């Protein structure tokens, strides 16, 4: 009896079959039976040694931030690895599909021919007795062993659900193959429909599960028409071929990755090595070693960079030498002029005092000029004293005469001096200070001069608004903050407040005199004590100056015990009290080029 053979092909499951997921069953042909769910393996990493990962990762992060060469190689390696993974997966998937599809086509063709031959022989059999039919069936089915070119296939005959299992029992090529090995979904499809069906699954052979392809069809036996005949194709050879190809592709990608990374390493080293040398030389130049130069080799772009850098270093060295020479000449000029003016100024001062003492006997037209002369000579004397002090700082000859002094006593002395001006300007001064003495190793004369300057500046710019003075101590430092609520300072003004001869508002008249050098000298006095003098201000909100001194000169003072802005304003913006050493214009240009500090 002949019948039309209908080949049912399923979805391409070959990639999964010929991979580590071969243990999972694949869907049946023609989409008649769904594929079972796969189970994924989980790895317990809870017991992995933590220290073995911590330090390499930390080191890699450090190199990523600090080494341009490492970053370039790591980036190239990561991108190449990702590309290789995708390309490798694509190639493996395509090769697996090709291998499986070829194997499937071959198996279906052989199976179709074999099933047709078996059914033809069974239909032509004249056997009527049970024993004869059994012998014919076994003889005919064994023909499948010799059919086709695949020697790795096995056959099994399974009675259908409506067949008489006692007439011809389950038969197989060997004892290791049974109906339990054939997927039940495939058996159900063969028993319920005509045609050829296939499904990929696994087959246990000698205790090892191997990928296999099951092809089945129903056959008719005289007196028992419902039997299922199945051919089982072992796909382990195809799996081995795919594994070998994967290994070869992986090794090829690994070698290619090493070659590419080596090329990237060499190229980046050629570029970065001169840059590193230039950076090291620049750091040494910044540290004051002006004789350092970059070693230049070749005539490429990096060589031109090195030559340009060396030319720049030569120019900077010449400029710095000229500025140092000019600064030295300026300092010497100021010192010499100050000393030379001291003697004639003393004579002029004596004459001005004599005229001032006898002003009551003068005519009214001479009285006022005499008073102006006396006041201006006094101011000129103060200016000359400040210039002499500045020249000593510039020459490095300023000495610190530190003794143990009660800081609160010095503050009280300054308050007595400023009290008349507070009364004259109707300004309230509020003290926030401890009542107990505070012993500090300091130069009494210099710190008193600093405090006078801070207090008188506060009175000058407070606009008769209250002045708050905050004093506090820590284990290592004493701090004082003088806070006024007057016109205030802008951020740009704060940057220049310690510059020499700087005035916030040149048109503003000074009511308490001053030479414009007070804060510059104050900053130098504080720096001589290893302390800090900082400024804060906001326009319309007032200004605050904070001085912090170590209690002992041989012990670091640490953080200041008082806020820079007192208790009323948050977010201080401290400015360093470093004094310009070359010229005022150079210092202003340098400060303006720096980014503003943020809180």
TrEMBL record:
| A molecular-function term among this protein's GO annotations | phosphorelay sensor kinase activity
Keyword Cell inner membrane present in the record's keywords: the answer is: no
Q: What class of enzyme is it?
A: transferase
Gene Ontology cellular component list: plasma membrane
**Could you provide one GO biological process annotation from this protein's UniProt record?**
cellular response to phosphate starvation
Please identify the protein, giving its name as recorded. Sensor histidine kinase MtrB
What's the source species' lineage? Bacteria, Bacillati, Actinomycetota, Actinomycetes, Micrococcales
What transmembrane ranges does the database entry give?
68-91, 244-267
Q: How does it sit in the membrane?
A: Multi-pass membrane protein
EC number(s) given by UniProt: 2.7.13.3
CDD domains the record matches: HAMP, HisKA
**Subcellular localization, per the record?**
Cell membrane
- Name the residue ranges with Basic and acidic residues bias: 1-11
Domain HAMP residue range list: 269-321
Q: Which reaction does it catalyse?
A: ATP + protein L-histidine = ADP + protein N-phospho-L-histidine
- Bias (Acidic residues): 585-599
Q: Which UniProt keywords apply?
A: ATP-binding, Cell membrane, Kinase, Membrane, Nucleotide-binding, Phosphoprotein, Transferase, Transmembrane, Transmembrane helix, Two-component regulatory system
Q: Where is this region: Disordered?
A: 1-45, 572-599
Task: Answer whether the UniProt record assigns the keyword Plastid to this protein.
Answer: no
Q: Which InterPro entries match?
A: BphY/WalK/GraS-like (IPR050351), HAMP_dom (IPR003660), HATPase_C_sf (IPR036890), HATPase_dom (IPR003594), His_kinase_dom (IPR005467), HisK_dim/P_dom (IPR003661), HisK_dim/P_sf (IPR036097), MtrAB_MtrB (IPR047669)
Q: Which SUPFAM superfamilies match?
A: ATPase domain of HSP90 chaperone/DNA topoisomerase II/histidine kinase, HAMP domain-like, Homodimeric domain of signal transducing histidine kinase
Alphabetical list of Pfam families matching this protein: HAMP (PF00672), HATPase_c (PF02518), HisKA (PF00512)
